[in-house]
Amino acid sequence: MISAGNDIVVLQAVDAQRTQSPAFYSKFISPKELALYKPDELSLVNFVWMLWSAKESAYKYLKRNNPELIFAPAKMTVQQLRIFTPLKTDTNAHNQYKGELQTNDIALPFLSVTTDQFIATTIDQGDVRWAVKQIETSDYESQSKAVRSFLLDDLKMSGVTIEKHPAGYPVLLKDGKDLGIAVSFAHHDRYISYCYQISK
Predict the structure, then answer these.
(1) What is the domain partition of the chain in residue ranges?
(2) How far is the C-alpha of 31 from the C-alpha of 7, rounded, in Å?
(3) Rounded CA gap, 30 and 68, in Å?
(4) The pLDDT value given to residue 94
(5) Which of 41, 80, 98, 162 is at 20 to 30 A from 51, Cα to Cα?
(6) 170 vs 173: CA distance, rounded Å
(7) pTM of full prediction above 0.85
(8) Three-state secondary structure call for residue 61
C-alpha cells in the first residue's frame, strides 16, 4: 500500500495535568496499552501523546485508501513500543521509539521522536521521508502555507502544486497530473511536519 501518515504534538501546547488524568487518557488508551508504559524511559504525558500521535498517523495513512474511514483511536491498539536509540544534538536530547499499531486486521509500524518541545510520529512503512521544522507563528494559515513550502523545498521539483483531495489528504500535481507521491502534513502550535512515500 502506498500511503503516508504523520502527526506532531507540541508539548508546551497541551494541558499536562489533564493529560495525566485516567478520565482523559482512558478514552483512547486501553489497559493493555497502558502496560507498555515505562516511567523510567519517558513521562506519562509523553507516553499518552505518543500513542495519540501514532493513532492519528495511522488514521491519516489508512484514510488515503479508505476515504470513508472515521477516526476512532480507541479501536486502534499499540501492540509494541520500545526505545530505538537515544540521540543527542548540540541543543536537544532526542529519543526515537519504534512501535506497531493494530487496527482491525492491519498492522502498521511507526516511528516516534521525542524532544523537550514535541513528539513527532510517522508510519514507518516503505521508503518514507520525514522532516520537522519550527516556524514563527502558530495560526492555521501560516502553518498550512509553511508546511507546503517546506515540502516543496525538499522535493526540489519545479512546477509542482499541492491540492486537497475531497477526503482531506494532500495530492501533488504537475501539469494537472497526480505524481503518485503519497504525502501527509501535520502541524501544531509553532511546529510543522511532513512525510511522504514515493511509489516505485
Answers:
(1) 6-198
(2) 23
(3) 25
(4) 80
(5) 162
(6) 10
(7) yes
(8) helix
